[in-house]
Amino acid sequence: MTPDPAPTAQQLLAFYLEAGVDCALTDEPVNRLADPDAAAPPREAAPAQRARTVPATIPTARVEAAPAPEAAITSAREAARIAPTLEALRELLEKFDGCALKHTATRLVFADGNPKARVMFVGEAPGRDEDLEGLPFVGRSGKLLDRMIAAIGLDRSKAYIANVIPWRPPGNRTPTPQETQICLPFIQRQIELVDPDILVTLGNPSTQTLLSTREGIMRTRGRWFDYDTGTRVIRAIATFHPAYLLRSPSYKRMSWQDLRAIAKALEQVSP
Ligand code: URA
Question: Ligand 1 center to residue 225 CA distance, Å?
Answer without folding.
Answer: 22
